[in-house]
Design goal:
By secondary structure, this protein is an all-alpha fold. The protein is built from 6 helices and no strands. The chain is extended and about 60 Å long.
Length: 131
């Protein structure tokens, strides 16, 4: 249900993949599943909120109020992107998630205690020599 909501919310981003395949211009970096833009992320979040509203009792507000909140969310971020130049408000949350769950914290701790690994001229990490 969430995937269908994301496709309905940002259909143009997903149709673009098939359209580029038909034209013969395949660019793997422009695939919406690999590099989602703000509208795809917001559509996934809105679909997730609607599913939680319908299928569970976690949100006790009426459906009209939940719908109004999602609409206000979209309008607010559209206006903030036009007036303030904010391109993607999800970036701070993504950076925090990547730092915690994808090893960023462990890399910083390792660099703190053991130092940065030395690199050679060709960019490869040199292995420490056994003494």
């Amino acid at each position: 249900m969430i995937a269908i909501g994301a496709i309905k919310g940002n259909g143009a981003g997903f149709v673009k993949i098939g359209e580029r395949l038909c034209r013969g211009v395949w660019t793997p970096t422009a695939v919406e599943f690999l590099v989602p833009n703000f509208s795809t992320k917001a559509s996934i979040l809105a679909a997730l909120i609607f599913v939680i509203d319908k299928k569970t009792d976690l949100i006790s507000a009426p459906h009209a109020l939940v719908y109004f909140g999602v609409v206000i969310f979209f309008v607010y971020f559209k206006l903030s992107s036009l007036l303030l130049g904010i391109t993607d408000p999800f970036v701070p949350f993504e950076n925090l998630f990547c730092a915690i769950c994808m090893g960023g914290v462990f890399d910083v701790i390792q660099e703190t205690f053991y130092g940065k690994p030395s690199t050679e001229e060709n960019g490869e990490v040199s292995k420490p020599k056994a003494e």
